Amino acid sequence: MRSGSLKAVDVVEAHLARIAAREGEIHAFNLVLADEARARAAAVDAAVAAGNDPGPLAGVPIALKDNMCTRGIPTTCSSKILAGWKPPYDATVVSKLAAAGAVTIGKTNLDEFAMGSSTENSAFGPTRNPHDLSRVPGGSSGGSAAAVAAGFASVGLGSDTGGSIRQPAALCGVVGVKPTYGYVSRYGLIAFASSLDQIGPFTTTVYDSALLLDVIGGHDPMDSTSIPVPHPSLVQVLDRGVEGVRVGRITDLPAGADPDVLERLEAAFDALREAGATIVDVQVPAFAYALTAYYLIAPAEASSNLARFDGVRYGLRVDSNDTNAMYSATRAAGFGDEVKRRIMLGTYALSAGYYTTPTTGER
């Protein structure tokens, strides 16, 4: 497309045709932006024809998880509580993708507010795995993973708090990366757990993930947690290989991992070893507490972050006799069961009256 030998409008039409053929059975999207994608593709073709640089992702159709703000386009987090809300600004990653020439083809389904691992906890219904419709695509970014796996989009973006990119990428057979925290701006990502959330790519090749991260990564003054140093180009170092690299192999993983997963993990270590890496066995005793820590930190932060959805400023509002009753009615109607469970767990964890002293057990 950058050379003009392939038209962006033709590429978009081919992807829209795939969506039309299978979206009804997969439900990867909450919203397909067909008209907007066609207009954007035409602009890319016009830029190429004029001899201008259309950007490194010129005409590439991309699927965005529906928790990333898109100016003037509904952003729902797959929740009823954001019904009718259209953000007045773009997330930083959305702006960077537009500057790189990418074409947003739709907003994808997710577990409500990214709380889940199967994309079944959506107010708009579940997403199916495109390889086997009887199976889940993983979550919470299952819509983006399914969209890429089904060929609805060349690449996709998801968010990962506790596995929400890595797990659906594995279940859908695509490449998924959770970048180092702070590598990609969170500005415009609707928060679940602010100290854990990170945006990352879904692609069909490692190269494409590196290219996409080169586009969306880097410091952003709008995000106070953004790493304030220039980020390296991942594409430029892909051919370095792993000769001499030391890779840790955790030997004290908690029991219960699926034997097939462990077998695949060992196969990956064997491949790294054969390519010249040194595999070093390590023990991480604290690893056993990781899930417990996650289920305290994430719900606690979610409880705080989701307090803003109260029927006053945006989204759903259920009128009632007084303000407090309106808050309760709105949140009861707007949030799904999984979100309510996590809010309650997080509120409990943050309640000073329920803290215990480690040494005495006193409250």
Give the structure's gist in a few sentences.
By secondary structure, the chain is of the alpha/beta class.
Q: Any key phrases for this structure?
A:
about 375 residues, alpha/beta, Amidase signature (AS) enzymes, 2 domains, two-stranded parallel sheet, 10 helices, 8 strands
Q: Largest sheet at a glance?
A: 6 strands, mixed
Low-confidence stretches: none
* Amino- and carboxy-terminal Cα gap: 64 Å
Q: Name the CATH superfamily assignment of the largest domain.
A: Amidase signature (AS) domain
Q: Count the helices. How many?
A: 10
Mean pLDDT over the full residue set: 95
CATH architecture of the largest domain: Alpha-Beta Complex
Domain count, please report it: 2
How many DSSP-defined strands?
Answer: 8
Give the helix level as a range of percent.
25-40%
Strand order of the largest sheet: 1-3-2-4-6-5
The CATH class of the largest domain is: Alpha Beta
* CATH-derived topology of the largest domain: Amidase signature (AS) enzymes
Globular, elongated, flat, extended or rod-shaped: what is the shape? globular
Spell out the helices and strands N to C: HEHEHEHEHEEHEHEHHH
